[in-house]
Structures
1.
Amino acid sequence: MDATYRADLRELNELNFQRFDAKVEQRFAQADAKVEQRFSQFEVKLESRLTEVERQLAELRSDLRTEFHTALANRHTSLLRWMFTFWIATVLAVLGLYMR
């Protein structure tokens, strides 16, 4: 009888382990699905935010380019004014020396 009980107990334990193993695998599959879903949501949010950052950087780049060209044009205009003022003063001084 001992051998029969042992065999029955072994078979019962194996069946219980198989059910336990199936439940564990099912729970791991559910956890994997949740993690996968959260990663997909994270990827969507990340892509959205990166797109927004890229748009803002493009806008900033455009603004900086405009400001740089405006500043460069103003500097160029100022330099031309000083140059003409210097040359007119120089020509008038030279003419003044020759007219004496």
2.
Amino acid sequence: MLSAMDPWQFITAAVIGNATVLAVLGWLGKSLLEKMLQRDSKRFEIELKAKADSTMEQLKSDLQLRTIEHQVRFSRLHEKQATVIAELNAHLVEALWEAESFLSPMEWSGEPNKREKHQTAMNKLVELYRYFDKHRIYLPEPLCVAVEQLVTEVRSHVIKFGIYLTWDDASLQDHTRKEKHDAWMGGWNAIKNQVPTVRKKLEDEFRALLGPRT
């Protein structure tokens, strides 16, 4: 027969037993917690990557859309710019034609007289400058300066010679008649010698602005 257990031995055994149980439970709890953390961490990593991939795709899509919008706007702007250049060149050519006809020392039978040609040339120069001034926003600044200088030069010669047309030659004194002739020839020489150089420069800048031909 087993002898009765000493009270202290009983308590010690109970404590040791409880400690062992607690240790086992603690180990199990720690193991379970680590597995839960690993599982949650893996799930979080997957979700985070999915969100990052989705955000990246959205950014790519937005960037592509903005690129397309920019290309469309640039294409429309270039098309408008080409239209402005073509129209401006047409106004310029017509104005120079009329100025040349007015300042030409040669006159043909059946043509309008100088006063009529003067009015036509002034009207064309006004049309040219108004179109240019309304559309200069589509042109680079150096080109605007060149156009304005050309229009101002031609207009000054047309006006200078046109002033003398208000008087008949018979009423002019010799020195005034000479001034009229000088203004006439000066304008004609500018149209035939100076203006073509400036016009060629403008045409080259027009073509450069439109870009190379494909």
3.
Amino acid sequence: MNTLTIKLLGGVIGVATVGVCLAGEPELAEKSVKPPASASKQENIGVATGLAVGAAAGGPVGALVGAAAGAWMGDRYHRLAVARAALAADLEEVRTDRTRLSQNVVELNASLAKEQERGEQLDLTLSHTDDVETDVMFRTNDDSIPMSSMSPLLKLGALAASMPAVRVHVDGYADPRGPKDLNDALSRRRADAVAAVLASAGVPKEQLLIEGHGSEESTCGDGDLEGYAFDRKVTVRLERGGSQSVASND
């Protein structure tokens, strides 16, 4: 075996030794995922180890071969370790995002369940009857809504607004005293006033069916003051389904 072969063999031995040394050092690169500005620690170890072993086995030539090969292998080990660390970080981020997404899905399902329960409760209000009805009473020749009726009207309006399939009938009435034209106009103003309160509670215009009936449905006899009091009213009725048109009494 000639001298050059022996020296090159020394370099190969140095490279093999570098591989053994670096095999136990991958965790050194995992501490940093950013490429270093200078040679990595694995590369420095490879150069030093390759240089020492190559020099011992093959002299100066072996030292150069061992150092070069050691540097290459050290850099390769470093890059692989950095890539592995970066991949582990990406995997952890994916796991975190998946956990967050699962939590969002759970919260959304809970919210939908609450809304469904609320809708079922509201619909239960009309489940045993075709409509819900209330009356707003008025003073003689007056279309101002009494304060005592405001809160019930707003609550009824909120209920109707939450149920798009419900139609809200607003029917105004007057007692039989006075001319027919005056009573017709008065009953319509009363109905419009009540409808305005319902609209302020969120009831869309297309759900409202407004009509003034005047005194045409009164059954009171002359001088029946108590009966007159019951004629001066607006009836609000929530009804499932029905026409979407807005009635009028011009």
